[in-house]
Design brief:
The chain is of the alpha+beta class. The chain has a single domain, classed as Lipocalin (Beta Barrel). The protein contains two helices and nine strands. The protein is about 15% helix and about 50% strand. The protein starts with a helix and ends in a 12-residue tail after the last strand. The radius of gyration is 19 Å and the shape is elongated. The C terminus is likely disordered.
Amino acid sequence: MRYLMLLLLTTYVLTASPPSGDMTVGVWQKEDHFRSKNKTSVEQRETLELKADHTFVWRFVIDLKKREHFVKGLQVEASGIWKRHITTLVLVLQSQKTPFAKEVSNSINPASLQALAQTYQAPFGGLPIRIYTITYLDKQKLTFTNEKGESISYTKGLFNDAPKPKEP
């Protein structure tokens, strides 16, 4: 009986683990902070989760603040399938979730929030097939170039959800 359980456990572990040679599989993240000319502070966290079963989830979480107006945790998400061949990464977007925000100040009306969500959902619009050229890939960093020639870099891991220090 122990041998049967060991065999079942070994089979489960081997089929559940990512392919040993594919460093593309994992949770890739990118974080940007900037302040626009109209003094709007924007923090954008992007996660690209490439799963071993060749599905992916691409998620943006955005926090905006301008004076007393703010939107916290605006989430925009798309999912689909992916395939990699040497230095070419192809993502096929199959579905999008309706954007939502965790917290919104009372001074922002629903129409403004909808317009803001559409702005951040725009990268998922257009053609559902995205072709990228991988320019760098190791265990901790993924850099690729999109169709427009823009370079995008991600690091592997999960976001640190510890509270950030307040700005003076």
